Amino acid sequence: MQRQDGLRRRPSLSLPILRSSRDHHLAGTLTLGNLLSSLGEASFGWAIVLFSLLTLLPLPPGSSLITGLPLLVTTGQMMLGFPYVRLPGRLARLELDQAKLRRTVLRLRPVTRRLERVLTTRHTALFTRRYERMLGLILFVIAFALFLPVPFSGWFPAISLFIVGVGLVEHDGLVAAVGIGLGIVSVLLTATILASLAAGAEGMMH
User: Is this prediction's pTM over 0.70?
Assistant: First the structure.
């Protein structure tokens, strides 16, 4: 019974984002930089969680060319060994739609609830400085697959990056590894779709 009670008392992964976005929205200061700062600007984990959520917002096709940029910047800085996330001024000042962000967070509740049941601090060697650049490189490749405006493929790398970000926030190496595995599959899926599109275009030209 004590174990079950402990699980029930675990803070929701969605709560910090919902609470911070609401407070900034009421204050008229809901920008990408302000929201990230309130979540913990030094954390690559929260940055990846937040930016992957942005790519899942209900936006027109091709919007990943814009929403994917913060993920490329973040994972690129991680790959280069930056100590914390440094958003360029234009990205930091990007205004967010609180209603759309809230709907996206709530839509992911089935995923976050499952993660909350299994999250624990383990296999933390994955997050040491020794592996940080390699981890950043892998995440950059996944983010690049998301960035490409390839039909029907963007949500898969976004979900995988979200899971990796949660693993980083909670220092759960197993969950992060699962997210990386899904991300690698998403990269292969994107490459397959691109190859099919290229073959189709070549066939039409001949």
Answer: yes
